[in-house]
Known about the structure:
Blueprint: H1 2-11, H2 28-36, E1 53-58, E2 62-66, E3 72-74, H3 77-90, E4 95-99, H4 102-119, H5 121-124, E5 127-130, H6 136-148, E6 153-156, E7 171-175, H7 181-188, E8 198-203, H8 208-215, H9 218-221, H10 235-248, E9 251-252, H11 256-259, H12 263-272, E10 276-279, E11 282-285, E12 305-309, E13 315-319, H13 321-327, E14 333-336, E15 339-347, E16 352-357, E17 362-383, E18 386-406, E19 412-417, E20 423-433, H14 436-441, H15 446-463, E21 475-480, E22 490-495, H16 503-509, H17 511-524, H18 549-561, H19 570-577, H20 593-596, E23 612-613
Parallel strand pairs: 1-8, 4-6, 4-7, 5-6, 7-8, 12-16
Antiparallel strand pairs: 2-3, 9-11, 10-11, 12-13, 14-15, 15-16, 17-18, 18-19, 18-20, 20-22, 21-22, 21-23
Amino acid sequence: MLRRLRRLCARYGSSPVFLLASATAAEPAVAAGRLTGLPVVEVADDASPRGELVFALWEPPLTELHGEKGAPVRRTATAEAADLLTDLTVQGVRSVAFVRSRRGAELISVISQERLSEVDRSLARRVAAYRGGYLPEERRALERALHSGELLGLAATNALELGIDISGLDAVVIAGYPGTRASLWQQAGRAGRSGQGALAVLVARDDPLDTFLVHHPEALFDQPVESTVLDPDNPYVLAPHLCAAAAELPLTDEDLDLFGPASEPLLPQLEAAKLLRRRTRAWHWTRRERAADLADIRGAGGRPIQVVETGTGRLLGTVDAGASHSTVHEGAVHLHQGRTYLVRSLDLEDSVALVEEAAPPYSTVARDTTSISVLETDVEIPWGDGRLCYGSVEVTNQVVSFLRRRLITGEVLGETKLDLPPRTLRTRAVWWTVTEDQLDRARINPEILGGALHAAEHASIGLLPLFATCDRWDIGGVSIPLHPDTLLPTVFVYDGHPGGAGFAERAFHTARTWLAATREAIASCECDAGCPSCIQSPKCGNGNDPLHKRGAVRLLTVLLEGAPEEKESADEADEADEADEADEADEADEADEADEADEATVQAAGDPAGPSEAPPVP
Length: 618
């Protein structure tokens, strides 16, 4: 979009100077240059007032409950964060609790308000939720109340993290590792901006990565923030912007240098799709629709779904199209400003979900199925007898049902089938295969093969954010005992963004280190048969079944015996680090809803899972 702006300015004789700012970006000059296409001068002096920041790593205690297969269950990060926000509010400490999902923000707010009412009813009114999907006037009012001190506590998604000025905070509670060190410091840095001392608390979720970080603080405090992930040549990003540029001003051959070398081969494809037409020396937009609507800067994957109250016709807010199948399907429980609604219908054609206020004694969790096919293998290297591959894949995901879970115990009350269309995603993936000989050496028989692959897949996805600039919800995975394209037991890990986002490529280049850390995380966990801290996943669609912890350790041990040394060139590292920009805006956060659907209670067990981990398909 910045390059389109430069092109229009040049047309009218202007050459603007761009000022770009970031509180946390690594190599800002490189990222800014790639974004704008211009040489950049970096100014790295930080003159902002900062007080002392005390940073605590907080691991919730184990509860007396037991989850799937009898695994111990930790108290949820949502419940712990709600307790901390309550205590800070009682002490008069201005605080924000950052949580990864919209539902989680609502739950922390509700729990904190209920507990504050027992202490002082007036305090309950000084805590609220803040998230994307609220109407603009609601969000501005909350920002003013927090800024003025009328609100003491706010449970917020990262909608409050990006571009909102909130000075004067004394404490920040972070419910779950936000996915990158850059996001962690961005959120923690919200406290103490007026020069006073401040507190930041990272509350670990029962998750392999969170568990690893609270026991290895050097991975947070002794490492630099990640490089910005950005690939202007991604055709899924570039093609819509070429259409928009042609609609703004006919696109000439001289313009192509501005948009990069990948733009020229895209033009014939856009002409074949009847989006552009060449006349004399320029390409023209051919449709009546607005071409700019093709370039979705938030990566939401379609028109937002409007959430409308049936009795009044009042617009409550919006939900991203990519997350609508799993969050506002018919029968779903929807939270808004502390109130509970039931979704009565979801009209995908008109992009409307009709809801009515209710008080069901349960939460809902969507279940889905995922299949994957290999379109093209770009790179393939031997790993002992097996293979490590990187290339293009097509992922098909379909929400097929939802569970109703009792609020107090997490008990499953029933399952309801859904009739929603499948969604497809063409993206990039890394995958590895193992042979019969390797399975024999690992003592993996057919009865435990599926569980061993599945456990290795879950843990590898959980650890990948340490090696790629991504969040667990930016990637997906599938494990299959006999995949039709490879004809071998195969584990796939793929980017959850059209065309890829560079995460799978980074995983390919660091596979030896990545999978070694995965094996260590599983083997060092103190549980007997697997738990959320090692192999159970919050977003698996099949009830975390089958899983086999010891089989996964043996399988990864044998796989790593044949792993080649990593010989990554600097160019490869740059390409992987700067591949497609992952949207950090809150409007993508709905991917976390299944993870926290059961956290309406302080001690709910993990959510249902399955043979794949799938982010929402745009």
